[in-house]
Amino acid sequence: MKSVLLILFFPFLSLGQLDGGALFNAKCANCHQPHMGGTGPKLFKVRDKWSTGGAEEGSIYNWVNNWQKASKTDPYALQISNSKAVNMSLFPELSKNDIDAIFDWVDEQPEETKSVQIEVPVVFPDYEFNILYRNYQNKVYFGSINGVTDYEVKVEGGTLSKQSDYYILTATDRLLSLVFLDKTSGDTLLVKNYRCKVLPDLQVYLGSATDGEKGDKSARSFSISYPPDVYLKMPDFKVVSWEMEYNGMVIKGTGSELTTEALLKIKEVKSGENVVYIVTFSGPDGVVRKRATNILY
Ligand code: HEC
After folding, report:
1. What is the pLDDT of residue 142?
2. How far is the CA of 156 from the centre of ligand 1 (A)?
3. What integer best gives the mean pLDDT of the chain?
């Protein structure tokens, strides 16, 4: 014979205690949240709000039972009833204890931190350091903020223009602020501040040396980069061609590698002498640029 072991768990509530959270989720959560406005206003500490705001004693319970009746007897309730476009449902079945249980539960909910993430925020550049570069076109994506996606973005100190599925953010001042406003409630959801710097010029590296630095005679590859303190995800720059000038003679080549002819010439360079390289490269923006770098040997 098979033996069956049955274990039952009894979730229990102490007698007489109402589950305000369950009531809230069943009846109010469609329109309300403890800490954020949506269809209805946030309900955190709403009893305090009514009592300090001048509502009549007990009027908030009448409101939940039947907001229309409450609005006829209490001017404060009448004022609240005009605050949103949508009307609240009626809950005549809820007792004062039920309603207090809901509000008690709501008031126990921890306030979410204001350091909200912009989800999938920015693909290019990386905003980790809260630095933007002036007059540089930043491709940015905004996700939901605390679950809210229906928000308005205001920018101070720059411009934001909508493209197909992203925005181009351009900083024009020393400081740029992005202010995210809830479209329904008008509440400020998030403020992000950025310091804006002038974008330094691109630099040409030969091996690990750039303009004015001491080079390694065996280094043969050119690369293009912003200076190391620029926190931009490096765009794809392609070296098209180069020219090497040493002692009045010029050697030219294509691609990012020096030719054997150039490397042999570099071997002749004496200590303390320098070689000028003029490098032509193209960027992701399609622009072809030319920069010189002066390497000391
Ligand atoms: C259908 C949406 C809806 C539901 C469901 C709903 N409410 Fe409301 N509630 C509102 C709206 C909208 C307002 C704002 C007043 C107005 O414009 O009528 C409001 C206002 C309130 C206010 C006043 C808020 C303030 O800032 O003064 C309280 C308190 C309140 N609701 C409690 C509740 C409770 C408790 C429940 C659940 C038992 C509930 N509501 C369910 C839509 C709803």
Report:
1. 76
2. 34
3. 82
Helices (H), 173-292: 260-268
268-294 pLDDT tens trace: 999 999 999 999 998 766 778 889 999
Phi first, then psi: give them for residue 275, nearest 5 degrees.
Answer: -120, 135
**Which of 18, 23, 25, 28 should be mutated for ligand 1, with most atoms under 8 A from CB?**
28
**What domains, with CATH codes, occur in the chain?**
20-108 (1.10.760.10), 122-198 (2.60.40), 203-296 (2.60.40)
**CA 249, CA 144: separation in Å to the nearest integer?**
59
At 7 the pLDDT is: 34
Atom of ligand 1 nearest to the CA of 42: 26
pLDDT at 104: 94
Q: How far is the CA of 295 from the centre of ligand 1 (A)?
A: 71
**How many Å lie between the centroid of ligand 1 and the Cα of residue 73?**
17
Where the chain has pLDDT below 50, the residues are: 1-16, 113-128
Q: What is the pTM of this model?
A: 0.45
Q: What per-residue confidence (pLDDT) applies to 3?
A: 36
Percent of the chain at pLDDT > 70 equals 85
126 to 21, 111, 215, 251: CA distances (angstroms)? 40, 29, 31, 39
Q: How far is the CA of 18 from the centre of ligand 1 (A)?
A: 20
> 59 with 75: CB under 8 angstroms?
no
With a 6 Å cutoff on the Cβ, whether 176 touches ligand 1 is no
Residue 169, C-beta contacts closer than 8 angstroms, at least 6 positions apart: 132, 137, 138, 139, 140, 155, 158, 159, 160, 176, 178
Please answer whether residues 109 and 35 qualify as being in contact, where contact means their C-beta atoms are separated by less than 8 angstroms: yes
